[in-house]
């Protein structure tokens, strides 16, 4: 069971600057039974330093999927979890890693889940954080909170493996909407809000960020996205559909 669930967990490294960290992250993943490595615009890859630091996890590097955009790396994921060291303004729900692990494994029972790690120097950008439905943090020593990228991958992978081994069979939930379907819903929502003059595109402030935070908490199911987009289609025409329930 643990291998099946862990096989649905995708580790996404965004804009990694040092190839050695990619190799070390691959090694950390393999020791815990994770195998899906996605790289978004790495500065150097493939690279001999990555191979050296992988120390036996060369197969993960060989099978790593290099993406030109974050959207490409997250395609198909029903839950995107971002690792961050600090609370941001208007951020999504933030939990420590141990609190979040059950949610991650529950969603990985039958669909891909992406765990997103930012660049070594500054972590995830605000734009990247907005693509997440859940934020997690590792409760490190506040007096020395600097954690190497590969070490962070190791801690996350360890927590997920321990829980996966201890857990019983994962129950199948109603299918969640994929990342790309939710993104298309946000695009549709923004267009409609502009059409009805609810959103000023020249002065949007943080309205769409607030909507993203609201719907991220809901963890939208596929059918719910279809309903919402149907409603937007009707409201964009100035009509409200009748209740057919």
UniProtKB/TrEMBL annotation:
<comment type="function">
    <text>Catalyzes the formation of 2'O-methylated cytidine (Cm32) or 2'O-methylated uridine (Um32) at position 32 in tRNA.</text>
</comment>
<dbReference type="InterPro" id="IPR001537">
    <property type="entry name" value="SpoU_MeTrfase"/>
</dbReference>
<keyword id="KW-0949">S-adenosyl-L-methionine</keyword>
<dbReference type="GO" id="GO:0005829">
    <property type="term" value="C:cytosol"/>
</dbReference>
<dbReference type="GO" id="GO:0003723">
    <property type="term" value="F:RNA binding"/>
</dbReference>
<dbReference type="InterPro" id="IPR029026">
    <property type="entry name" value="tRNA_m1G_MTases_N"/>
</dbReference>
<keyword id="KW-0963">Cytoplasm</keyword>
<dbReference type="Pfam" id="PF00588">
    <property type="entry name" value="SpoU_methylase"/>
</dbReference>
<dbReference type="InterPro" id="IPR029028">
    <property type="entry name" value="Alpha/beta_knot_MTases"/>
</dbReference>
<keyword id="KW-0489">Methyltransferase</keyword>
<dbReference type="GO" id="GO:0160206">
    <property type="term" value="F:tRNA (cytidine(32)/uridine(32)-2'-O)-methyltransferase activity"/>
</dbReference>
<keyword id="KW-0819">tRNA processing</keyword>
<comment type="subunit">
    <text>Homodimer.</text>
</comment>
<protein>
    <recommendedName>
        <fullName>tRNA (cytidine/uridine-2'-O-)-methyltransferase TrmJ</fullName>
        <ecNumber>2.1.1.200</ecNumber>
    </recommendedName>
</protein>
<dbReference type="InterPro" id="IPR004384">
    <property type="entry name" value="RNA_MeTrfase_TrmJ/LasT"/>
</dbReference>
<keyword id="KW-0808">Transferase</keyword>
<dbReference type="GO" id="GO:0002128">
    <property type="term" value="P:tRNA nucleoside ribose methylation"/>
</dbReference>
<feature type="domain" description="tRNA/rRNA methyltransferase SpoU type">
    <location>
        <begin position="9"/>
        <end position="158"/>
    </location>
</feature>
<comment type="similarity">
    <text>Belongs to the class IV-like SAM-binding methyltransferase superfamily. RNA methyltransferase TrmH family.</text>
</comment>
């Amino acid at each position: 069971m643990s291998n099946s669930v862990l096989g649905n967990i995708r580790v996404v490294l965004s804009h990694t600057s040092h190839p050695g960290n990619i190799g070390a992250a691959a090694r950390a993943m393999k020791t815990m039974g994770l195998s899906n490595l996605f790289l978004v615009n790495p500065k150097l890859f493939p690279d001999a330093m990555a191979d050296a630091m992988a120390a036996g996890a060369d197969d993960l590097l060989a099978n790593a999927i290099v993406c030109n955009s974050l959207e490409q790396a997250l395609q198909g994921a029903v839950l995107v979890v971002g690792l961050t060291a600090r609370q941001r303004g208007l951020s999504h729900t933030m939990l420590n890693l141990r609190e979040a692990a059950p949610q991650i494994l529950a969603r990985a029972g039958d669909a891909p889940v992406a765990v997103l790690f930012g660049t070594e120097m500054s972590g995830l950008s605000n734009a990247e954080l907005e693509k997440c439905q859940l934020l997690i943090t590792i409760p490190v020593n506040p007096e020395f909170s600097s954690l190497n990228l590969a070490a962070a991958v190791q801690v996350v992978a360890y927590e997920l493996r321990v829980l996966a081994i201890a857990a019983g069979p994962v129950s199948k939930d109603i299918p969640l909407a994929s990342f790309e379907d939710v993104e298309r819903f946000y695009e549709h929502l923004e267009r409609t809000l502009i059409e009805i003059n609810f959103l000023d595109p020249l002065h949007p402030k943080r309205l769409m960020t607030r909507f993203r935070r609201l719907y991220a908490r809901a963890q939208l199911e596929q059918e719910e996205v279809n309903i919402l987009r149907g409603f937007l289609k009707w409201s964009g025409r100035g009509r409200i559909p009748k209740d057919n329930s």
